[in-house]
UniProtKB/TrEMBL annotation:
PROSITE patterns attached to this UniProt entry: WD_REPEATS_1, WD_REPEATS_2, WD_REPEATS_REGION
Matching SMART domains: WD40
UniProt keyword Repeat, yes or no: yes
GO cellular component: transferase complex
Name the UniProt record assigns to this protein: WD repeat-containing protein 38
Keywords: Repeat, WD repeat
Matching Pfam families: WD40
Organism: Chanos chanos (Milkfish)
Entry-linked InterPro entries: WD40/YVTN_repeat-like_dom_sf, WD40_PAC1, WD40_repeat_CS, WD40_repeat_dom_sf, WD40_rpt
Tree of life domain: Eukaryota
TM region positions: none
WD repeat extents: 17-58, 59-100, 101-142, 143-184, 185-225, 232-266
Length: 309
């Protein structure tokens, strides 16, 4: 884990999580960063205590590899997307499956809650994204326009917009209030693999082309092109929006200054690629990486440990 502000990032602790029997496709931290959620090609999800590394629950229900997972902002729910063409919504406390959301025709690659936890978006190989009502589990809008698989999604922090990233190399931003308002952002030269909003209204997108693009929706323009080398797997803005963290295949975590778009830190700590990163409410940075079917997370106890779970 690395602490914010950027001048004081230091690695404090590394812990390994290794109970899945297949490749780990995604990991997500609860909003308070106390619980880690992982999903895998072994058709299961695991809930972990992020501090102690204790396995809290193994969750099954999907009939195929689980491609994406996410917590609601209040941590009471989590959702999962699967190759079995379904999305499931689960109760975090009981791990009970509350809804099975069906409507996609191919593998579902991404899932995300709105910040108010009322809405869920899913994206699929069928080139569509779908908006769902969380309470009822009903589909209320299908987002059409992409010409490639939809691999990433994110809601704006005011829950007014949702962004989707696609294998058609574009990002689309959809208004939840006005169905006719759709912004198409072009510039990437590869599949768009992750998208992320800041509290200040900026949107970042990462691509297989190795670059991160930072956009302003008001001007519908690209502010910065942050150049890298590997497939960008994850993005996270700090809570104040001053810096952006990116995790990429074959690279370590990079920290970018949002004043000028320059890389101000290149953080090392994983044995291989880092593929997940998120800023905590306190301003620290958690990151996770794949290593022999495991997920790495760092905590803040101040001394390095490598406890194999």
């Amino acid at each position: 884990m690395w602490r914010h502000p950027s001048a004081d990032f230091t690695i404090s602790n590394i812990r390994y999580f290794s109970r899945h029997k297949g490749e780990v496709n995604c990991c997500a931290f609860s909003h308070d960063c106390q619980i880690l959620l992982t999903c895998s090609d072994d058709w299961s999800l695991h809930l972990w205590n992020a501090t102690s590394g204790q396995l809290l629950a193994k969750i099954r229900g999907h009939l195929g590899p689980v491609k994406s997972c996410v917590f609601s902002s209040d941590g009471k729910l989590f959702a999962s997307a699967s190759h079995d063409r379904s999305v499931r919504i689960w109760n975090t406390s009981t791990t009970e499956c509350l809804h099975v959301l069906e409507g996609h025709r191919k593998s579902v690659e991404t899932v995300c809650f709105s910040d108010d936890s009322r809405c869920l978006v899913s994206g699929s190989w069928d080139q569509t994204a779908v908006l769902w009502d969380v309470q009822s589990g009903r589909m209320f809008r299908m987002l059409l326009g992409h010409t490639g698989a939809v691999q990433s999604s994110a809601f704006s922090t005011d829950s007014q917009y949702v962004a989707t990233g696609s294998w058609d190399y574009t990002v689309r931003v959809w208004s939840l209030q006005n169905p006719d308002e759709v912004i198409t952002l072009e510039g990437h030269r590869g599949n768009v693999s992750c998208v992320c909003f800041s509290l200040t209204g900026m949107l970042a997108s990462g691509s297989w082309d190795g670059n991160v693009r930072v956009w302003t929706l008001k001007k519908r323009a690209c502010l910065f092109v942050l150049e890298g080398r590997g497939w960008v797997r994850s993005l996270s803005f700090s809570r104040d929006g001053l810096v952006l963290a990116s995790a990429a295949e074959g690279e370590k975590v990079r920290i970018w200054d949002m004043e000028d778009g320059k890389c101000i830190r290149h953080l090392k700590g994983h044995r291989d690629s880092a593929y997940g990163c998120v800023f905590t409410p306190s301003g620290a940075l958690l990151s996770a990486g794949a290593a022999e079917l495991s997920v790495e997370a760092e905590d803040l106890d101040g001394e390095n440990s490598t406890d194999e779970i």
